[in-house]
Write a structure and sequence with these properties.
Chain lengths: 208, 559
């Protein structure tokens, strides 16, 4: 199954007006929102394993990928169910970048997200605990067009729930330009000629 | 064919059928006249019935304001005046812009949506009670862009119902998501057209850092503001790639600096391929206010419009101030970012395939919106016997002939330079060429010249294009001067003409809705079709086809 968008939590539609409990840290190095290293999801008895991932974000990680501008140094994370995951994000550009995870249970993470934001040249860290079900979570930078131009990743818990579309290095774009040769009308003329040629060939073949 | 007789019969039948089914109204004129002579006129046939076309539900004219942003309020010592139109700016962002994001509490900063370094205000160098070192950070955002996944635009911004062309804008440095909230695809309020109106004080040391968060190179050009060609480090400071220095590449940042000696209404915009980038929205007002004591300025006015914390100098002479930023959109340019995702293809599409010499503007915006959304955000709200300051910039391709109903305007400054006091021009249509700015004084004293009294007085470009959206009127950048007597509690003007329901539907601007259907009844509704003619034509096609086949069967010999 290819998951096309963010998996929607059954508790979707919760009241967003109470934003006080966003556990937000906002300072010169960036932002951490919904950091959680001790409160377990309802379906977990204990933390299964601890992971620490160091992630770098910037234009240099898209240089080897034609047609993309921004990137992470890795596009896939695999963890066990009920794992404690610590992410250390560094923006190696002179602009800020984010590492946002969507689809977490909303009773534990307001908005269902875990959000790291690193100012240009800075590093921030934060942790979250994943529930037990096998699922693939969307990871991306939400600055306009950063995800579309390559800053997208996925985090698989357990067996995951398939790959997301358009994850650089992992899956194809759902919508993609044709990239036909520049002087495509020569090729089209050739293709068009194939129609009468094959028609005539069949007619002549049947006659003899 | 089995026999010649069968063939002849089929030929006769199809010929007769074709002749009979052919619509008489299309017979040659001479035949029709001859038939009229013999038989008189054909019997009465009523014209097709009217049909109701409009089926879309109108949007709510005036969105609710649950958080009370429109009210007068004081936040951490900043007096923010009421802005009683439908939609008002986030007062927490305004407070952060006035005090500096480094000078507000964490709670206010979080509610403003800005980063701690978005607007940093430093020392008071001249000891007059307000900061004179201003550090501003700007990023570049894309609205209604394309996506390698979805066919819908991302980070959506509507300039009128259903109209979402792509835009590139300068934005303040914000923290968190680009969309309103977790489930919405709409851009958050800080990200919009036009780029924010920036205010600094004459003599301030100003540092503007462009953090290029976009996938194209950009620069900042401080049009009209006193700035050096190079900065103190010897780097280009004018933002012109062919003259002063390389553009700022994606992911990079560059700081531009100025210490303006002259006050006035100026302009700022990108100067990389400006015929494309400026037209995409990378342009904003840059206002240098006269130096006064205790002059804490609202460093950014998001989306231009009402200035809720005016400067000391403006408050001395005027009761209210409005920034009016006019732009236009050629849909053939702005839609290109939605057609491809690869920056190389987008760059080629926009800078090599698009020909600006063939450009025609289709949409006309005031403060980033067209009618009817202009009435939510960009009304000039007034009371009688006031003096209103309007700072107007024309960022469009064509000149604007700005006309105010019910009032005349006095031009006080041209491109930020004061007009001679004894030679002020007062008129009801002012011409503003591309990139010119005019400071206008509006008087609401009912003296028959400055103002004719209270009302809902439209103001708009008097050229016929700019009052339409892609040819559909009313549209374009129509807005109004609305006196308090005519303003509802929710911020919507108490109009007494036609219903606005059709204008608040996307169908109206897709050219689908008959112009006066909402109040003209059947007389001006849509038109049904002539079913009789349709059936005749179908029968004719069948008979003519059979006739042709019958003839060909005889003509083309089979083996």
């Amino acid at each position: 199954m290819i998951a096309m968008w963010v998996p929607v939590d059954p508790l979707y539609g919760q009241d967003h007006s109470k934003h006080a409990s966003h556990r937000m840290i906002l300072d010169e190095s960036g932002m951490v929102m919904n950091h959680n290293e001790d409160e377990l999801p309802r379906d977990c008895q204990a933390i299964s394993r601890e992971y620490e991932f160091k992630v770098s974000a910037g234009t240099e990680f898209a240089q080897h990928r034609p047609g993309l501008t921004f990137g992470y140094d890795r596009n896939e994370f695999e963890v066990e169910p009920c794992a404690l995951v610590r992410i250390t994000l560094t923006s190696v550009d002179e602009v800020r970048h984010q590492w946002m995870l969507h689809g977490l249970p909303r009773y534990l993470y307001p908005g269902g997200m875990f959000h790291l934001e690193a100012a240009g040249g800075h590093t921030v860290s934060g942790s979250f605990i994943v529930p037990s079900d096998d699922r693939t979570y969307l990871v991306h930078c939400d600055i306009t067009q950063h995800m579309e131009k390559g800053m997208k990743a996925q985090l698989k818990v357990g067996k995951g729930s398939g790959d997301l579309w358009a994850v650089p290095g992992i899956s194809k774009d759902f919508r993609r330009a044709t990239y036909l040769p520049r002087r495509y009308w020569y090729w089209f003329a050739l293709l068009l000629m194939a129609i009468p040629v094959s028609t005539l060939a069949i007619i002549f073949a049947r006659r003899h | 064919m089995k026999s010649r007789r069968a063939w002849l019969l089929l030929l006769a039948v199809s010929l007769a059928g074709a002749l009979l089914s052919y619509p008489p109204q299309w017979y040659p004129l001479s035949l029709r006249l001859q038939l009229s002579e013999w038989f008189g006129a054909t019997g009465f046939q009523p014209l097709p019935e009217s049909v109701q076309v409009q089926s879309e539900q109108a949007e709510q004219y005036c969105p609710d304001d649950p958080a009370g942003w429109r009210q007068q309020q004081q936040i951490e010592g900043v007096q923010i005046s009421a802005s009683l139109g439908c939609e008002a700016d986030n007062p927490f962002a305004i407070a952060a812009f006035v005090r500096g994001t480094n000078n507000v509490s964490q709670a206010v900063l979080i509610k403003s949506g800005l980063t701690p370094d978005a607007v940093v205000k430093g020392r008071d160098l001249d000891g007059d009670g307000d900061p004179d070192e201003i550090h501003i950070r700007l990023e570049v955002a894309e609205l209604n862009g394309g996506s390698p996944e979805s066919g819908e635009p991302v980070t959506q911004y509507e300039l009128a119902p259903g109209i979402k062309p792509g835009f590139w804008v300068f934005v303040p440095k914000y923290a968190g998501m680009s969309t309103e909230n977790f489930e919405s695809s709409r851009a958050r309020k800080l990200l919009r057209v036009p780029s924010p109106a920036i205010r600094v004080e004459q003599g301030d040391k100003v540092f503007i850092t462009l953090e290029n968060s976009h996938y194209m190179p950009h620069t900042l050009h401080l049009h009209g503001s006193d700035h050096g060609f190079k900065d103190v480090t010897g780097e280009g400071n004018d933002g012109v790639p062919i003259a002063g220095g390389l553009p700022v590449m994606p992911g990079q940042a560059r700081t531009y600096e100025l210490q303006p000696r002259e006050a006035g209404t100026k302009f700022y915009h990108c100067h990389v391929q400006p015929h494309v980038h400026v037209m995409m929205g990378l342009q904003g007002l840059f206002i240098i206010e006269e130096n006064r004591p205790n002059n804490w300025l609202q460093t950014m006015n998001i989306g231009a419009g009402h200035v809720r914390v005016p400067s000391v100098a403006v408050s001395e002479e005027y009761d209210r101030e409005y920034d009016l930023h006019y732009t236009d959109v050629d849909i053939e340019l702005n839609e290109r970012i939605q057609q491809n995702n690869d920056p190389r293809l987008i760059a080629e599409s926009m800078h090599r395939q698009y020909d600006t010499t063939d450009a025609t503007a289709d949409y006309f915006l005031l403060n980033g919106r067209s009618f009817p959304y202009t009435f939510r955000e960009s009304l000039v709200l007034v009371k009688p016997d006031e003096r209103i300051k309007l700072r107007v910039v024309n960022g469009g391709r064509d000149g604007i002939a700005l006309h105010t109903h019910g009032h005349t305007m006095t031009i006080t400054h041209r491109d930020g330079v004061a007009a001679k006091p004894g030679a002020l021009v007062t008129r009801d249509v002012v011409w503003i060429a591309t990139a010119q700015r005019l400071d206008l004084a509006l008087s609401t004293t009912n003296d028959g010249l400055g103002s004719y009294g209270s009302g809902i007085w439209l103001f708009h470009d008097h050229g016929s294009k700019a009052v339409t959206s892609n040819g559909i009127g009313p549209g374009g950048h129509i807005s109004a001067i609305v006196y308090d007597q005519y303003l509802g509690d929710d911020g919507w003007p108490a109009t007494s003409g036609v219903s606005w329901d059709p204008y608040f539907t996307a169908a109206y601007y897709r050219k689908q809705v008959p112009v006066w259907e909402s109040y003209g009844g059947d007389r001006f509704s849509g038109v049904g079709s002539d079913r009789v003619l349709l059936v005749r034509l179908l029968l004719f096609a069948i008979f003519a086809g059979t006739l042709l086949a019958t003839v060909l069967a005889r003509v083309v010999k089979r083996d």
